[in-house]
Amino acid sequence: MTAVDQVGTAAELVPSRRSIGSNIAEVSCRVKNWNESVKIAKDHQTDTRSQTEWPSMPKVPETKMKKTQDSEKFYEPKVISFGPYHHDKPHLLAGETIKPLCAQKFVADSNQDIEDLHKKIKSNIEAVRRCYDSSATNKYDDEKVAWMMLLDGCFILQFIRSCTDDMSNINLKDHQISFVELDSFLLENQLPFGVLRNGIQPAAADDRRLPQLPDEPYHLLQLMRSALLGGKDKIPTKIKNPNRQRNRQSFLRIMELKDKGIYLKPSGTNSLTDISFEFHFFRGCLKLSPITIDDSTQTRWLNILAHEMCSEDPDDYAVTYYIRFLDSLIGHPDDVKELRSNRILCKRLGSDEEVAQISSRSPMGCLQIPKVMKVSELVFRSTTKSL
Question: What is the pTM of this model?
Answer without folding.
Answer: 0.74
